[in-house]
Design a protein that fits this description.
The chain has 239 residues and is an alpha/beta fold. 47% of the residues lie in helices and 10% in strands. The chain contains 11 helices and 7 strands. The strands form 2 sheets. The protein has a 5-stranded parallel sheet. A two-stranded parallel ribbon has the order 5-6. Strand 3 (101-104), helix 5 (108-117) and strand 4 (121-123) form a beta-alpha-beta unit. 31% of the residues are buried.
Amino acid sequence: ASDVYKRQEFLQDVLAEVIELFPSKYIHIGGDECPKVRWESCPKCQARIAQLGLKSDETHTKEQRLQSYVISQAAEFLAANGRRMIGWDEILEGGVTKSATVMAWRGPGYGIEAARLGNHVIMSPNSNCYLDYYQTRDVDNEPLAIGGYLPLETSYALDPYNQLNDEQRKYILGVQGNLWTEYIDNYPYAQYMALPRLSAIAEVGWSYDRKDYASFMQRMRHLTQLFDYYGYNYCKREF
């Protein structure tokens, strides 16, 4: 019991410091890339699962239920301090409180699931929004990227409301482009990976009801003139 208290205290101490540092309404707690294989053989995890009475069922394993318990503790602490929690879509595993905002990265389906459950969602699927992916299949003549293939048109094709009815659509807060920098060590490199795809993602968010790719490409030619004027480094293959 003492160890459990210390772990909960540690989690709350970290979140309390984040709250003190940042005045934002939302606090992102992560929650992603948490494989449960180790938990299956960990005696402390299994003891805690037993203590909490967590059970596996047809939808979630008891280890996923344990993650849900930890995430719920974070959500409750943030709510008690006037903040709202955001987590990557893995927080759906094991069930998640309705107050949590889900950031869908592994595909739009996770955002669709969350919106149907009544959770707010930020659509950021790697299929459309991961700007550390290659912009062309000609990878030998491109800066090193983590992998994948995400051309400009695919970023523009994101439909954050796909398969959602009018009631469910109100839970979509917006979209986000992600540029992870494991392979990016300078600002011009980051500019090249972000532009022009960031413009496409922005239009998805700002002008969803007026999207037209041919029109977008015509306007992009004017925008690239601004990129050139300000000396931005951007991918020119589409132009």
